Task: inverse folding
């Protein structure tokens, strides 16, 4: 990489960020494949809601099983071919949803989308960004995730209008074709690894200089996957990820909380959920910069503070509904971004950069499975107690626990690193 501020701004890594944003553009379209479609599909087929939403569980299960394979493939094969093929499979799965005559076809699409998601979403984005950025990793990942959150809001609105104007079947077809034209061509031609481009990752020289000063090896520090799973620090880092998986699931019930417990209109519940999403968009840009400038402890503290403010405000809104909207916005600053941005950054810091991709692929199996398993029980808290207050307390406890486990993991990692300075 040519040194100098102007040259750094032109670094190919920022082209990769554009590719990742377009990947999120595509996956955000597929994410709404249920959402607003549940009611019209369920009514048309004459089935129960859970029969259709089982599609989401199938996607998560397939994704989790394929993560180890995806981690290896993404690091050894041509990114443009692997990711583009995965995105195409996801879009095909969504397109076909508009053609089925029974719910069982949706399960087939669930498998297709699950396969594609394993190579494009929660695992792939951190790996691709880590491949290209040795500095400003948090900033790059935060930009991508924030854009993904913004696209989710956009396509949620677009899908609703398409369903009303064209019917749910045509809406599926139209939505699937949009990224095929807008995003896929650019990703297929520009998404490359550093070796393919013939340039070094962004900030590689600085990272190597720091490694040389720290250990004299001049190479990125990191424990191997075999070593990592023998070390307590890895499991404390994993607990951080699992806590974020559970805690970040709680805000998904904001719309339900608004309508069922506060007794607001469906429209206001939708607005409350959208405000939460807007907060998440703003958070992504800030959270990455905070991690890059102040470290992952600061990022975890940020998440805990805003989850406490947001969830605490939602609990108070039970008595004063005027607090609902500002509390949703605050919750957005500590919500899903802690799972999609903070968790991979914590894991990378604890185990090191060198073998991070292999280790993260394994961690994501547990992360995805716990996220899929806890969603229904969180809703069960309302069924048992008649209030979501317990769920909000759970969210705050999970984020506080994540901070505690994270500090422990980082302290262990620091001591281990000092004791093994000469380890490759």
Result:
């Amino acid at each position: 990489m040519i040194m100098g501020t102007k040259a750094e701004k032109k670094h190919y890594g920022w082209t990769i960020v554009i590719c990742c944003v377009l990947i999120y553009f595509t996956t955000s379209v597929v994410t709404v494949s249920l959402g607003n479609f549940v009611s019209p599909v369920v009514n048309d087929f004459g089935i129960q809601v859970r029969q259709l939403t089982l599609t989401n569980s199938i996607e998560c299960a397939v994704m989790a099983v394929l993560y180890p394979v995806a981690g290896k493939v993404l690091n050894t094969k041509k990114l443009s071919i692997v990711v583009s093929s995965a995105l195409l499979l996801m879009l095909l799965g969504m397109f076909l949803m508009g053609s089925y005559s029974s719910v069982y076809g949706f399960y087939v699409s669930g498998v297709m989308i699950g396969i594609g998601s394993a190579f494009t979403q929660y695992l792939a984005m951190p790996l691709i960004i880590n491949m290209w950025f040795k500095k400003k990793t948090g900033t790059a990942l935060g930009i991508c995730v924030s854009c993904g959150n913004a696209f989710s809001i956009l396509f949620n609105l677009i899908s609703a209008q398409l369903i009303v104007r064209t019917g749910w079947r045509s809406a599926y077809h139209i939505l699937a074709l949009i990224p095929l034209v807008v995003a896929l061509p650019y990703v297929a031609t520009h998404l490359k690894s550093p070796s393919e481009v013939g340039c070094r990752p962004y900030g590689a020289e600085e990272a190597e200089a720091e490694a040389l000063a720290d250990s004299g090896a001049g190479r990125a520090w990191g424990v191997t996957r075999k070593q990592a799973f023998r070390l307590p620090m890895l499991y404390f880092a994993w607990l951080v990820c699992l806590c974020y998986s559970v805690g970040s699931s709680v805000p998904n019930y904001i719309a339900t909380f608004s309508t069922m417990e506060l007794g607001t209109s469906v429209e206001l519940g939708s607005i409350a959920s959208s405000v939460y999403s807007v907060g998440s968009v703003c958070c992504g840009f800030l959270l990455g910069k905070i991690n890059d400038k102040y470290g992952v402890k600061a990022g975890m503290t940020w998440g805990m503070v805003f989850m406490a403010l947001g969830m605490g405000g939602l609990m108070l809104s039970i008595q004063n509904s005027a607090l609902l909207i500002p509390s949703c916005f605050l919750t957005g600053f500590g919500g899903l971004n802690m799972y999609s941005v903070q968790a991979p950054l914590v894991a990378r810091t604890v185990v090191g950069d060198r073998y991070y991709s292999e280790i993260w692929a394994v961690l994501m199996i547990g992360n995805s499975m716990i996220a899929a398993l806890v969603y229904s029980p969180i809703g069960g808290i309302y069924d048992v107690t008649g209030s979501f207050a317990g769920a909000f307390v759970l969210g705050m406890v999970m984020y506080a626990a994540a901070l505690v486990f994270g500090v422990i993991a980082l302290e262990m990692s620091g001591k281990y690193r000092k004791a093994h300075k000469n380890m490759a």
